[in-house]
From TrEMBL:
Superkingdom per UniProt: Bacteria
Protein's UniProt name: Uncharacterized protein
UniProt xrefs under InterPro entries: TPR-like_helical_dom_sf
Keywords associated with the record: Membrane, Transmembrane, Transmembrane helix
TM ranges: 6-26
Keyword Transmembrane helix: yes
């Protein structure tokens, strides 16, 4: 057999083996593919490539949804619609700095709660820069990955209330009541704050959420 044919055969076998391994991870251990894209996002962030880093953050979310087994988003958004691209340099720098600090911790601890925390904090940055729809999408992504934590549900619901999307906010809190652990907090928020239309500021639970998700 000629050397070229041998090389082509070996290349084909290698591609088949790689494809088989990727399919296995996709079906059985999607978080490993999510981790791969987080590595790409970190590399791009360190180089100052905002668009490249955010694109990989989007891709990572898709695989972590599969790991969590609870795509809370339903049909609201696609995984490639969670990010935002501000033209102002300040939020871009803030996000890149955030990613270079937060991703290494996620890669070290391999915690789905820490992955969720990345999207929650990106949502806060988006909200503070008046990207309100993107903030809701990012909070929704965070909740999808860590749906047992009531404070995240309330932050997400508030992001809809402040956009005058009251039915959507109430829907989020009612859905929250389906889960055992966050049920009480969401019920109380519905019966007090929502009934009186006294909504807490976005980000009021940041310290609680950061502390909870880092443990």
């Amino acid at each position: 057999m000629k050397p070229l044919k041998i090389l082509l055969l070996l290349t084909s076998l290698l591609i088949l083996m790689l494809a088989s391994e990727l399919i296995f991870f996709y079906r059985n251990e999607p978080e490993k593919l999510g981790k791969l894209f987080l590595n790409f996002a970190l590399s791009e962030a360190k180089q100052g490539n905002y668009n490249g880093s955010i694109a990989n953050i989007d891709r990572a979310a898709f695989f972590y949804f599969k790991q969590s087994g609870n795509d809370y988003r339903g049909k609201d958004i696609g995984y490639n619609q969670i990010a935002f691209y501000p033209t102002n340099e300040n939020p871009r720098k803030e996000i890149l700095n955030n990613l270079t600090k937060s991703i290494p911790l996620v890669l070290e601890k391999e915690s789905i709660s820490l992955v969720s925390n990345i999207y929650y904090n990106l949502g806060l940055i988006a909200y503070s820069n008046k990207f309100y729809k993107q903030a809701s999408n990012l909070f929704l992504t965070a909740v999808s990955m860590d749906y047992k934590f009531g404070h995240l549900h309330v932050e997400l619901a508030n992001s809809y209330f402040y956009r005058n999307m009251f039915e959507k906010g109430i829907e989020i809190l009612k859905k929250c009541k389906q889960f055992k652990y966050p049920k009480k907090q969401c019920q109380e928020y519905l019966e007090t704050n929502v009934r009186l239309k006294v909504f807490l500021p976005i980000g009021i639970y940041k310290k609680i959420i950061d502390d909870y998700q880092s443990n």
